[in-house]
Specification:
Elements (H helix, E strand, L loop, with lengths): L1 E6 L6 H6 L2 H4 L3 E7 L1 H4 L1 H7 L9 E3 L3 H11 L3 E4 L5 H11 L5 E6 L10 H13 L1 H20 L5 E4 L2 H6 L4 E4 L3 H9 L10 E5 L21 H19 L2 E6 L5 H4 L2 H5 L3 E4 L2 H6 L3 E4 L5 H6 L4 E5 L1 H4 L4 H11 L2 E4 L10 H4 L4 H12 L9 H12 L7
Parallel strand pairs: 1-2, 1-4, 2-3, 4-5, 5-6, 6-7, 8-9, 8-11, 9-10, 11-12, 12-13
Helix pairs in contact: 7-8
Length: 394
C-alpha cells in the first residue's frame, strides 16, 4: 500500500482528522499524521497535548531522532506538506528530499485576501519604530527570517490548488485543481435539513485573544487584550439583538482550548454560544457577523449577508487593515464598535449582498472554476492513481 505522511502545521485535533480527509485517504494509503508540536512549539504543546485527537494515524515527533527513525521505516512516501517555514521544518524537508522517490505535495488553499501596505500603514510602522524600537526591530527580524525560510523551502512536485489565487502562486510541476477545505464541509451539509427554524445572526469567533496561529506567524502578539475586546463586543452584540430583533449565536473557534471555553459564560455575559458547528450555524442564519475569519467562506458558499466588525483598537493593530480590505473586496458593511455604538442599525441595508463580488470571491479564494464537485481528498486520490501509480513504490 502506498504511504502518505501529512506534516501538520500544529497540534492534531479531531478537526484536522476531518479536514485532511484521513478516513478517505486510508482507504487507499497507509496514512501517518505527523505532529511535531512538542518539538517545534513546546509551549503550544503544553496547552494542547491533553486534547489532541487520538488515533493510530497520529504520530508525535518530539526530536530529530524521532523524525529520522520514522523516515527510515517508511520511505518512500507521498508527503503532504502543511508545515510553516522555519529552521527545524526546513531541516525536515531536507531529510525527506534525500530520497528522490518521495513525492512532495503542498496545499495552496484556504487563502484570504491580505491588503497591500499603503502610505498610512507604512507611516504608522515607522512611527512605532521610533516609539518602540526594540519591539519593531524584533518583528522585522522575524519577518525577514520567515521570508528567508519560505524561500529555502523546496519547490513541491505537486500542488493541490483550491482557488485561482492559489493557482497563480503555485510553482509546482503539477497542479491538482480543487477547492478549500471548508468546501468539503459545504458539500456535506448543503442539502441536509435546517436545524433551526428561528431567525438569528451568527458571530464567527476567530480566537482574537488566544489563537494558536500566533505561535507560528510574526504577528505573535494578539491584536487586542481580553479586557479590551469582550466588553465592547458584548455591548455591540446586545445592541444588535435589541435593534434587529435577531438573537446572536456566538460560534466559538474550533481550536479554542478548554480552559478558554470555560471562561465564555463570564466573557459573553448571556450571549449564547456553540462550538463545532460553525458551517451549520452560518447556513441556517440570516446574517453573519465577523472580523476577517477564513470561515467567511461559509457566508459566500451559503450566500449569506455579512457585516464586518472592527474597533479603534483593532483598526490600529495589524488585523485592522485586513478587516477593512476583506469588507472592501466584498463591498460589505463595516461597523466600528466604538464609533458606531450609538448609531441606529439599518437591518435592510445590512442584509444586502453584492452577488458579483461573492462570485468573484468564490473563484479567487474558495474553488477553482470547473474543478470537480467532490471531496478534496477524493480529487487527490484520483490524481495519484492516475499519475503516480507506478512511481510511488507499494
Amino acid at each position: 500500500m502506498k504511504k502518505i505522511l501529512i506534516l501538520l502545521p500544529g497540534p492534531f485535533l479531531k478537526r484536522d482528522y476531518e479536514r485532511f480527509g484521513i478516513e478517505t485517504l486510508k482507504k487507499n494509503f497507509l496514512v501517518k499524521a505527523i505532529d511535531c508540536t512538542s518539538w517545534i512549539y513546546p509551549e503550544l504543546w503544553k496547552e494542547y497535548s491533553k486534547i489532541v485527537f487520538k488515533c493510530k494515524e497520529h504520530v508525535v515527533i518530539s526530536c530529530k531522532r524521532d523524525f529520522l527513525t520514522l523516515l527510515s521505516q517508511i520511505n518512500p512516501v507521498i508527503v503532504i506538506d502543511s508545515l510553516h517555514g522555519d529552521k527545524k521544518t526546513n531541516w525536515m524537508r531536507q531529510q525527506i528530499k534525500k530520497n528522490k522517490k518521495n513525492l512532495f505535495v503542498e496545499l495552496r488553499l484556504n487563502f484570504i485576501p491580505y491588503p497591500s501596505s499603503n502610505i498610512i500603514e507604512i507611516s504608522r510602522k515607522l512611527f512605532n519604530l521610533v516609539l518602540k524600537p526594540k519591539e519593531c526591530i524584533s518583528k522585522i527580524v522575524k519577518i525577514l527570517e520567515q521570508k528567508y525560510y519560505n524561500l529555502r523551502k523546496p519547490i513541491p512536485d505537486t500542488n493541490i490548488v483550491g482557488c485561482l489565487v492559489g493557482k497563480k502562486k503555485s510553482k509546482a510541476k503539477n497542479n491538482v485543481n480543487a477547492h478549500c477545505m471548508d468546501y468539503d464541509i459545504y458539500l456535506d451539509i448543503k442539502n441536509k435539513p435546517v436545524n433551526n427554524n428561528n431567525s438569528y445572526a451568527v458571530f464567527i469567533d476567530e480566537g482574537m485573544c488566544y489563537h494558536s496561529d500566533y505561535f507560528y506567524s510574526f504577528n505573535s502578539k494578539q491584536p487586542i487584550s481580553e479586557e479590551e475586546y469582550y466588553p465592547l463586543l458584548v455591548k455591540f452584540l446586545n445592541k444588535f439583538e435589541m435593534e434587529t430583533k435577531l438573537s446572536v449565536l456566538f460560534a466559538i473557534h474550533p481550536k479554542t482550548p478548554n480552559h478558554i471555553i470555560e471562561k465564555f459564560p463570564n466573557l459573553l455575559q448571556g450571549i449564547k454560544y456553540q462550538i463545532g458547528n460553525t458551517a451549520e450555524l452560518v447556513r441556517d442564519s440570516n446574517v453573519v457577523l465577523l472580523h476577517q475569519s477564513t470561515s467567511f467562506s461559509f457566508a459566500v458558499l451559503f450566500n449569506k449577508p455579512s457585516v464586518f466588525l472592527t474597533s479603534n483598537k483593532l483598526r490600529n493593530s495589524w488585523i485592522g487593515p485586513r478587516i477593512d480590505n476583506l469588507a472592501k473586496i466584498l463591498n460589505g458593511k463595516v461597523i466600528n464598535m466604538n464609533n458606531d455604538l450609538n448609531k441606529p442599525l439599518d437591518l435592510q441595508n445590512l442584509l444586502k449582498i453584492d452577488e458579483n463580488k461573492y462570485k468573484n470571491y468564490l473563484d479567487q479564494y474558495l474553488k477553482v472554476p470547473n474543478s470537480p464537485d467532490i471531496p478534496l481528498w477524493e480529487i487527490f486520490t484520483d490524481f495519484i492513481k492516475k499519475n503516480h501509480s507506478k512511481s510511488i513504490i507499494k
